UniProtKB/TrEMBL annotation:
Residue ranges of every copy of the NIDO domain listed in the record: 99-262
UniProt cross-references to SMART domains, sorted A to Z: EGF (SM00181), EGF_CA (SM00179), G2F (SM00682), LY (SM00135), NIDO (SM00539), TY (SM00211)
Ranges for domain Nidogen G2 beta-barrel: 410-643
InterPro entries assigned: 6-blade_b-propeller_TolB-like, cEGF, Cueball_EGF_LRP_Nidogen, EGF, EGF-like_Ca-bd_dom, EGF-type_Asp/Asn_hydroxyl_site, EGF_Ca-bd_CS, G2_nidogen/fibulin_G2F
CDD domains: EGF_CA (cd00054), nidG2 (cd00255), TY (cd00191)
Protein keywords: Basement membrane, Calcium, Cell adhesion, Disulfide bond, EGF-like domain, Extracellular matrix, Glycoprotein, Repeat, Secreted, Signal
Name of the protein in question: Nidogen 1a
LDL-receptor class B repeat start-end pairs: 954-996, 997-1039, 1040-1084
Chain ranges of the EGF-like domain: 637-678, 679-721, 726-769, 770-808
Originating species: Oryzias sinensis (Chinese medaka)
């Protein structure tokens, strides 16, 4: 009867649960996009647009007819100044409504900001629903006007805290300002996965983003001062992350505030519904979305170009409508073996479906009977069958939930470990807890509990003294029971999860306590795992804490228990002074109960836990934290303090007395009789309360001291001391580093600097000595080395060619043919005469000249790279054809590129990516010819990361993280072509094997390395384990090696493998920070990398391990490439391509494009391919699909998803 009679109530509860328990999705935002009538804020950093309002906005005690929408996540009541004056500050000097305020960017196709005014009925109705749900005890409101502002996929203007520098993380959130005649409200919506970063860079430092409301500066009698403000986030990252996880409106991710009233206004009022139901049953995450909507309104499909809006009509649920709730059993649970007992009183009406639905959804026990499940009960429990399943019940003399049962009156113990990170006071560094011991002992007969936590450092121990809540749960679990009431263990046993949120007043420091109780062990001891994350106020060593008795009301529901309380404690300082402080504690306990029987029916929905004789102590000598308290669970007594019908002022505390007696006491910082409490203006009553060089800012119930400009808080966090003016000794020349020819001075902030010897010198930076590089075999084995001050020179020996870094002997094919014919003279009657055959012309590199002419006949023709005549090019005597090397085919007829995209002229070039374009800089004798720099490709709305070049076909390849995709285009003209567009997360580094005709790339989101043919076919994953943030990748196809970087913050490394992914090993793993760029020089066989964390450029021979620093003090390198003795890299701080000479170890040139934005990948586009062959050079190495080189052979590999079954794999060295 219970399921049938309660079906409609349970179903309605379930609907309310679905509407509020899940985090809000982006498609549940208010409609947005141009289709919704939105305007779009101009894309760029720090853009503002004025919006004139058709109805005034009430903000604090003022009325505004216009507002200003800003890129940086806020709306202002006046035009904001330059972002440099307010970033990182809360409150600012002007009126601000901050949804999530930081240094944000919408340029280059990254994110958009939509905004509009709206008075449509569906929008106003949705706004009213949010407001009325958040303030259930107030009169209902009906807004008449709304402003909707939506920040979609906005990125940090500078690298976020993840540290990689790529703007892959996006934030999406919405602000709705709803107004009626005498009040205005702010509704803030933060989508699930919509808060992906919580800080942005401000003046080179990570600063937590802010949310809140500020009135700005207000005029006084003598001067202006900071007006009132209200912060919705703190200075901790967790407060930003919780915007999408918590609520004050009853729906996760939705926050509502009353921000202005007329004619009077006191302060910003937050919503009053902070509790959430438990997580949904597991099957809900596996089935499809329900067919019924959760609200009346419009759902949005988000498209980068156009955001479509689809109407979604509300469908009311009625008890007599079975179609709305009917579900197939197989969609909820897999088919079960054996018969399933019918639920009681099944009928053919709609309630049959509701009963059947809950029959499959809420059971925590397996289906079946006691005959095959008795072993799941405690040895001190009996199993009982019910029509819908079985339950376990503790026998007389024992108590628990049937799964765990303990003897009545027996003392109980709890053991576990505590992990986590806790910030103390203003310290920027957390105290790490790596598994300290927690032990507890409870005398059940009198409800007395004892808790001891060991190995707590003295930097944290005193500050944890007020947190009796750490061990309070064990007191609740085994509290002394009044008749008719049950303690926690007797209701839910020993397997449950508890989360407590502790907020310290008045500065809103927040600590999250998560505890997982895993039942009892073989000794009947409760086992618990505890995690602490957040911040606590600092208390000096030697402080003690006393706590008065307190009471908590526990609300019991199906599989969910909640409580909320305010606790007051007195701090006794080492100097003899005392302070009274408070904190709020909200906790949620989730568990699984048996729903088949009636074990929970006698549990009262509200029970009061009374705690007295609270004792707390920190033993500094043994570093042990101790708590002791007496616990009793019983009747709430209907005291008005617990029912809320007390009439105390909002700024007062209700003190329960005997029976229904109570008293109202104004909270600290307020004055009155308890029913009417007025704020005490501490700043006015004691003008010197903040001391010298400080400004006092009164706030409701408290005050805040802020140092004047030029001053900062000293080590005591209270006294304002003058800020030392920093001196840049490097710039002023007042440093003591060695001469600029031998050392470099690097300014590190404040008045500090470091001295470092330039490459080619060794020492401490203040005394540098020349290094004899010739002692370390820096030249080629067939070259002579000459040491010079700070550098060296290499010269190939007689009989060899090259630049000294690379020397070679012998002749090219052209030279061999030429010398053979020149030496093939014959002797006739008139003496020696030359050969009758044509003698080829060879260029300076020994290759065939594209144009060949016969000196005897005067005719000319074109040849390919192998010296073979190109058909149809032979000309008559006296005429010269136009010849280029193109592997024997006639020149391709290509589409003419756009006017702003020019094909590259002959020669070697640098190609680099900059936002939505790829540009080139010509090279001439290793030097950048900057006046010839031009754009190769314009790709608006794209963020190009990696670039690679195929020297055979003259094609540039690139990775794009916005689509994401991998594409290519000919540098001789033509349209871009997408090569790969599916199954990509964040493709970043890319390299080309010009011999094997393949591309390799890294994917930092899917954490893998892949290979494919140049057209994107034959795709295969070659490395997919032990990768966290792979980025740069380069290939050495001649020797069959692959190299890549992984800038994992915890363990950065540089790795290598054969080109088929085998023989993988770590090359470098020490002294790395953010290894962004990687390059391999085929002439010197040097592998070089640029590190944005250590600010160094280093090189090594991979087979020797001779790691050498070639440049220090670089700023923020990203991409790197080599050409001869030069290394070129892109730098995010300088927005430039920087050239450095590897031999001298110095920067030699810099090129800054006209467009000053970040530069990403860079590569060298050689005029001719580097010499060398491998086993894949001819006939694809005999492989059917992928031919991947190894040092001694090659591997034949098949794609992950071969299109045909005719693929044959062969191992390496076959």
């Amino acid at each position: 009867m219970f399921w049938r009679d309660q079906g409609w109530l349970l179903w309605a509860t379930f609907l309310g649960f679905v509407a509020s328990a899940h985090s809000i999705r982006r498609d549940e935002f208010f409609p947005f996009g141009q289709s919704a009538g939105d305007q779009v804020l101009e894309p760029e950093n720090d853009r503002t647009q004025r919006l004139d309002l058709s109805a005034p906005l009430l903000f604090y005690d003022r009325s505004f007819d216009s507002i200003f929408i800003n890129t940086n996540g806020f709306v202002a009541t006046e035009e904001p100044p330059s972002e440099s004056t307010y970033l990182g500050k809360m409150p600012p000097s002007f009126g601000m409504i901050a949804a999530l305020h930081g240094d944000l960017d919408t340029s280059a196709g990254v994110g958009k900001v939509f905004f509009r005014q709206d008075s449509r009925a569906d929008v106003l109705r949705r706004a009213a629903e949010h407001i009325n749900r958040a303030f259930p005890y107030n009169d209902e409101v009906d807004p008449t006007h709304a402003v909707v502002v939506t920040w979609v996929d906005v990125a940090p203007h500078t690298p976020h805290t993840r540290g990689d520098g790529l703007e892959k993380k996006r934030n999406s959130f919405q602000l709705v300002l709803a107004s009626l005649q005498k009040a205005s409200y702010a509704i803030l919506l933060y989508a699930r996965d919509g808060v992906q970063f919580s800080s942005t860079l401000v003046q080179g430092s990570d600063v937590i983003m802010h949310g809140g409301f500020s009135k700005g500066l207000v005029p006084g009698f003598w001067f202006t001062s900071q007006g009132p403000y209200y912060r919705t986030t703190s200075d901790e990252e967790i407060s930003v992350r919780e915007l999408a996880e918590q609520t004050n409106s009853g729906q996760r991710g939705v926050w509502v505030y009353e921000i202005g009233t007329s004619p009077t206004f006191s302060d910003v009022s937050p919503g009053e519904v902070t509790d959430l139901p438990t997580e949904p049953p597991p099957f809900l995450a596996q089935t499809t979305e329900p067919s019924w909507p959760l609200y009346t309104g419009e759902q949005v499909k988000n498209d980068p170009e156009q955001i479509e809006i689809h109407s979604n009509q509300y469908q009311p649920l009625q008890p007599h409508d079975p179609e709305v709730v009917e579900l197939d059993e197989t969609e909820i649970n897999p088919p079960l073996k054996g018969p399933i007992p019918d639920p009681p009183n099944r009928t053919q009406n709609g309630q049959n479906h509701i009963s059947h639905f809950f029959y499959f959804s809420v059971f925590s026990y397996n289906f079946g009977t006691c005959s095959n499940n008795r072993n799941k009960c405690s040895q001190f429990a009996d199993c009982r069958d019910y029509s819908s399943g079985f339950c376990c019940h503790c026998r007389p003399g024992f108590y628990g939930n049937g799964i765990q049962c303990v003897a009545e009156g027996k003392p109980q113990r709890m053991n576990g470990k505590i992990h986590g990170r806790v910030f103390v006071g203003s310290s920027p560094y957390p105290v790490e807890l790596g598994g300290v011991d927690l032990h507890s002992y409870v005398v059940v007969n009198d409800g007395r509990s004892y808790v001891a936590i060991s190995d707590i450092p003295e930097t944290l121990g005193p500050s944890l003294l007020p947190l009796s809540v750490l061990g309070g749960v064990i007191g609740w679990a085994f509290a002394l029971e009044q008749p008719g009431y049950r303690n926690g263990f007797s209701v839910i046993g020993g397997e449950f999860t508890r989360e407590a949120e502790v907020t310290f007043m008045p500065w809103n420091e927040k600590l999250i306590i998560r505890q997982e109780f895993k039942g009892t062990d073989e000794l009947d001891h409760l086992v618990v795992k505890t995690t602490l994350e957040g911040k606590v106020p600092e208390m000096p060593l030697g402080s003690t804490v006393t706590m008065d008795p307190y009471a908590e009301i526990y609300q019991y529901g199906s599989n969910l228990i909640t409580s909320s309380s305010t606790r007051e404690y007195k701090v006794n300082m080492p100097d003899g002074s005392t302070e009274t402080r408070t904190y709020q504690c909200r906790q949620t306990i989730t568990f699984q109960s048996c729903q088949h029987g009636d074990s929970l029916r006698d549990v009262k929905p509200s029970q009061m836990l009374s705690v007295d004789q609270v004792f707390v102590l920190y033993d500094v000598n043994n570093k042990i934290l101790r708590y002791a308290m007496s616990n009793k669970v019983g009747d709430v007594n209907e005291n008005p303090c617990f029912t809320g019908r007390h009439g105390c002022d909002n700024n007062a505390v209700c003190r329960p007395g005997q029976g229904s007696q109570f008293t109202c006491e104004c909270a600290a910082g307020f004055l009155g009789n308890g029913r009417d409490c007025d704020d005490i203006d501490e700043c006015r009553e004691n003008p010197q309360i903040c001391g010298y060089n400080a400004v006092c800012n009164n706030q409701p119930g408290t005050y805040r001291c802020e140092c004047e400009d030029g001053f900062q808080f000293g080590s005591d966090s209270r006294t304002c001391v003058e800020v030392d003016r920093p001196v840049n000794h490097c710039e002023d020349g007042t440093h003591d580093c060695d001469t600029p020819e031998r050392a470099q001075c690097s300014y590190t902030g404040s008045s500090s600097f470091i001295c470092s010897c330039l490459p080619g010198y060794v020492g401490d930076g203040r005394n540098c000595q020349d290094i004899d590089e010739c002692q370390s075999r820096r030249c080629h084995q067939d070259a002579d080395c000459f040491n010079t001050p700070g550098s060296f020179a290499c010269r190939c020996r007689q009989g060899y060619r090259g630049d000294g870094s690379y020397c070679y002997s012998g002749e090219t094919r052209c030279e061999e043919e030429r010398d053979s014919l020149l030496g093939g003279t014959v002797f006739g009657p008139r003496g020696p005469r030359p050969s009758e055959s044509h003698i080829p012309a060879c260029d300076g590199n020994g290759e065939y000249e594209p144009l060949q002419c016969d000196r005897r006949t005067g005719s000319c023709w074109c040849v390919d790279r192998n010296g073979v005549e190109v058909r149809g090019t032979r000309s008559a005597p006296g005429r010269t054809p136009m010849c280029i090397h193109d592997d024997g085919g006639p020149p391709d007829v290509r589409p003419t590129p756009r006017p702003d995209v020019d094909p590259l002229p002959p020669g070697t070039h640098l190609l680099f990516a900059q936002s939505g374009r790829i540009e080139h800089v010509p090279l001439e004798s290793y030097e950048m010819r900057k006046e010839g720099a031009k754009a190769v490709l314009h790709l608006p709305e794209r963020v190009i990361i990696g670039v690679a070049y195929d020297c055979v076909e003259k094609v540039v390849y690139w990775t794009d993280i916005t689509s994401p995709a991998i594409s290519k285009a000919s540098i001789q003209g033509g349209e871009p072509t997408t090569v790969i567009r599916t199954d990509l997360g964040s493709p970043e580094g890319i390299t080309v094997d010009h011999i094997g005709r393949t591309i390799f790339w890294t994917d930092s989101m899917k954490d893998r390395i892949e290979v494919a043919s140049l057209d994107g076919s034959r795709r295969r994953v070659i490395v997919d384990s032990d990768l966290i943030n792979p980025r740069a990748i380069v290939a050495d196809p001649v020797h069959g090696h692959l190299y890549w970087t992984d800038w994992n913050r915890e363990a950065p490394k540089i790795e290598t493998s054969y080109m088929d992914g085998s023989n993988r090993r770590v090359l470098v793993q020490n002294d790395l920070g953010l290894p962004n760029g990687l390059t391999y020089d085929f002439q010197s066989s040097l592998l070089c990398w640029a590190d944005a964390g250590t600010h160094k450029m280093e090189c090594m021979h991979p087979d020797r391990g001779d790691r050498t620093s070639v440049l220090e003090g670089i700023q923020y390198p990203f991409g790197i490439t080599s050409y001869g003795r030069k290394i070129f890299y892109t730098d995010w701080k300088r927005n430039a391509v920087v050239a450095m000479d590897r031999h001298s170890g110095r920067e030699s040139d810099e090129f800054q494009p006209a467009k000053q934005t970040k530069l990403y990948g860079i590569t060298s586009a050689y005029s001719q391919c580097p010499p060398g062959r491998n086993y894949c050079s001819v006939n694809n190495g005999g492989c059917t699909h992928l031919c991947l080189a190894t040092p001694n052979g090659r591997s034949c590999k098949c794609p992950n998803n071969p299109a045909t079954a005719a693929c044959v794999e062969r191992p390496a060295e076959y």
